[in-house]
Specification:
By secondary structure, this protein is mainly α. The protein has a single domain, classed as Rhodopsin 7-helix transmembrane proteins (Rhopdopsin 7-helix transmembrane proteins, Up-down Bundle). It has a 4-stranded mixed β-sheet with strand order 1-2-4-3.
C-alpha cells in the first residue's frame, strides 16, 4: 500500500470534488481529493477534535497543578516524589502537545487538500509522530528505572538532575528518530480507475534503498511497547504483594517514613496506571501499523483511508484516559480543580462605598494559594 503505483478501485461516482488537472502524473487524468465520504470525514474530525480538546484541557490542568506543588515540605523534597513529578510532567507535556498540534493537523489533512505532498506533508507527519514517540520513550526510561529499583540494582533513588537528563535524552531520541521516518513521506499517487486519481500523504517505500520502516517500527514502536507492557505487569504484581502484606504499616519507624512508603506505593501505582492508559490503545495502533506494513492487505480505498486515519483515534484517546486516571487517583488534584472552579469572579460594577465591618474575633482568612 505504500507503493507509488498502488491501485484501488472505488464504487462511488467521481463527479464530486473532482477537477481536470495538468498533473505531472497524467495530463488527461482527473484529480479527486480523497474520495472517502464527506460524512465519514466529518465524523472522524469531530471525534478527534473532541478527544483533542478534552485531552488538552485535562493535561494542561495536570501540568499546571504539578508546577504549583510546593517542594520544600518533607514529602515533596523526597527524591522519589520529585522524580515521580518529573515523569508525570513529561507525560503530561507530550500528551498536551499531541492534542494541541497533532489533532488539528490530522483534521486539516482529512478535511482539506493541504499537507498532501512535499514539505508540508513531511512536516505534518513529523509533528504527528514525534510526541507519541517521546511518550513511549519516557515510559521506557520510567519503567526501566522502577524495574531496576525492584531488583535492588539501584541502591538509592536517582537524583532529580539525573532523572531530568534521562527524560531529556528520551525526548531527544524521539526527535531524532522521527526525522528520517518523516522524510520518506510524500504525495503518493493512487489510481482510482482509468480516468481518476488522488494523491495522499503516505510513506514512500522507494525513498530509501532499503525499507526504513522495518528498522524504525521495531526500534521505536514494537520493542518499547512490549518491554513497557511486561515490565509494568511485573510492577503490578510487586505492588499487589506489597499491599497484600501491608508493608506500609509494618516496619515504619515513624510517621514520616510510613507516609513516604505510602507515597511510594501510591506513586508507583499511579505511574503503572498511566502507563497502561497509554500503552493499551497504543498497542492496537502499533499492531495495525505492523500488520499493514508486513501483510499489506488489499482493501477498498475508502476503507483503507478511513481505517488508517481512524486508528489515530486510539492515539488521541490516551491523553483523555490519563487525565481520567490522574483525576481519580490524586485527591489533591481533585481539590485543586474544585478550588480553581469554585473561585467567584470579581465584580467590577461601580457601587456606592459601603461600610466594611471588621472580621469577627477569631476568624481566619482563607489561604487560596495552599494546595
Amino acid at each position: 500500500m505504500g507503493d507509488k503505483n498502488a491501485t484501488w478501485t472505488v464504487n462511488s461516482p467521481q463527479a464530486n470534488n473532482s477537477s481536470q488537472t495538468n498533473s505531472p502524473y497524467h495530463k488527461n487524468s482527473i484529480y479527486v481529493f480523497t474520495p472517502a465520504g464527506n460524512s465519514e470525514k466529518l465524523t472522524l474530525c469531530l471525534i478527534v477534535s473532541t478527544l483533542g480538546i478534552t485531552g488538552l484541557l485535562g493535561n494542561c490542568s495536570i501540568f499546571y497543578f504539578l508546577s504549583k506543588i510546593k517542594k520544600r515540605n518533607g514529602t515533596q523534597s523526597n527524591p522519589f516524589v520529585r522524580s515521580l513529578n518529573l515523569y508525570i510532567r513529561s507525560l503530561s507535556l507530550s500528551d498536551l502537545l499531541m492534542c494541541a498540534v497533532g489533532a488539528p493537523l490530522l483534521c486539516i489533512n482529512v478535511s482539506s487538500d493541504v499537507f498532501q505532498s512535499g514539505w508540508p506533508c513531511k512536516i505534518a507527519r513529523y509533528l504527528q509522530f514525534v510526541f507519541p514517540a517521546a511518550t513511549i520513550n519516557t515510559l521506557v526510561v520510567t519503567s526501566l528505572e522502577k524495574f531496576l529499583s525492584t531488583r535492588n540494582v539501584l541502591q538509592r533513588p536517582m537524583s532529580t538532575r539525573k532523572v531530568r537528563n534521562i527524560i531529556l535524552y528520551a525526548w531527544l531520541l524521539g526527535l531524532l528518530l522521527m526525522m528520517p521516518a518523516s522524510a520518506a513521506y510524500d504525495g503518493i499517487r493512487v489510481d482510482l480507475n482509468n480516468s481518476h486519481f488522488t494523491v495522499i500523504c503516505k510513506n514512500n517505500e522507494n525513498f530509501y534503498p532499503f525499507r526504513l520502516t522495518l528498522i524504525i517500527l521495531p526500534i521505536q514502536y514494537v520493542l518499547p511497547t512490549v518491554f513497557v507492557f511486561f515490565v509494568n505487569i511485573h510492577l503490578s504484581i510487586i505492588l499487589w504483594s506489597s499491599i497484600k502484606r501491608r508493608s506500609v504499616a509494618l516496619g515504619a519507624k515513624n510517621s514520616l517514613q510510613a507516609h513516604l512508603r505510602t507515597k511510594k506505593i501510591r506513586g508507583t501505582t499511579l505511574l503503572v496506571a498511566l502507563t497502561f492508559g497509554f500503552i493499551i490503545p497504543f498497542s492496537f495502533f502499533v499492531g495495525n501499523m505492523a500488520y499493514t506494513q508486513i501483510v499489506k492487505p488489499q482493501r477498498h480505498f475508502r476503507n483503507a483511508y478511513l481505517f488508517r486515519y481512524g486508528s489515530a483515534i486510539l492515539i488521541f484517546l490516551s491523553p483523555l484516559i490519563n487525565f481520567t486516571i490522574f483525576f481519580i487517583q490524586v485527591n489533591k488534584f481533585r481539590k485543586f480543580l474544585k478550588k480553581v472552579f469554585s473561585r467567584k469572579p470579581r465584580n467590577f460594577e461601580i457601587r456606592r462605598p459601603s461600610v466594611v465591618s471588621p472580621p469577627a474575633e477569631g476568624a481566619n482568612y482563607l489561604n487560596i494559594e495552599r494546595i
